[in-house]
Amino acid sequence: MLAQVSDPLAMVVKQTDDVRIHTFVASFTGSNIANATHIIETQNQLVLVDGQFLAPYAKAFRAYADSLGKPIDRLYLSHRHPDHWFGLGTAFTDVPVHALSETMTFVHDHGEDSRSDHWKLGDLLPERIVIPKQVAAPGEETIDGLRYVFDRVTDTEIDYHLTLRLPDVGVYVAQDLVYSGTHLYLTKHLDHWMRVLQEMLVSDFTLFLPGHGLPADKNEVARNVEYLAAARQAIGDGLAGDAFKSFMLQRYPERRCPGIFDIYMPRLFGGASDY
Ligand SMILES: [Zn+2]
């Protein structure tokens, strides 16, 4: 089924004297999954996080970044799921892309296969893939006067996930560790994922930028922990496939983007792969 493309949202989510942070969210409707990408704007330049999924959203995200009138210094790719990097080939081929080495290797080895596997998306796909060239390693770095802390988080929604924390403004760029107002993409690593979220809850950070949905506070992070606990219980009780999906839809009617079930269930219950 072709995804329906409709109006994305762009918003300023944090503003201080020196820093403005923007979030751009693709549609919540149809089979869209509300991909959220972000811009950290400092005095002289922009740092972007993730490149959107479908071509029209990638182009709109790029147009929004360009409208700020500052050069894009770099883009961080959070992890290897294609809804975060397909858009790089559509709208960011001229931007240096930084990623964990594991993510770079995956896109290098499997990126083109992943693109051809999604042929049903037609002209929503990028014409080419972009392989990240710069390694993002755990640690601290100051970029255009703003302090960043990078972390490599293993075995949660994905095997290797990059997070960015901005301690001076209280912002935690969590991407797919947090699904804000939407159904989560579940894996076999629910216990460890919940521990990572619980660490967020006792941290000093106040704003959590998700990979799907709108910018989140700690209440939403806590709701993610509760969702994962409920899913773990349901799976432990023997629910699988459509029965599991019905249970979760009924338990969380307020959450959007149910299309995610059909993406992860063949992996979680069908043994296609861990992720
Ligand atoms: Zn995602």
From TrEMBL:
Residues covered by the Metallo-beta-lactamase domain: 34-212
- SMART domains linked to this entry: Lactamase_B
Keywords, sorted A to Z:
Hydrolase
Residue intervals passing through the bilayer: none
Matching InterPro entries, A to Z? Metallo-B-lactamas, RibonucZ/Hydroxyglut_hydro
**GO function term, MF aspect, one:** hydrolase activity
Q: Coiled-coil region(s) at which residues?
A: none
Q: What is this protein called?
A: MBL fold metallo-hydrolase
Organism, scientific name: Streptomyces actuosus
- Please spell out the taxonomic lineage of the organism that makes this protein: Bacteria, Bacillati, Actinomycetota, Actinomycetes, Kitasatosporales
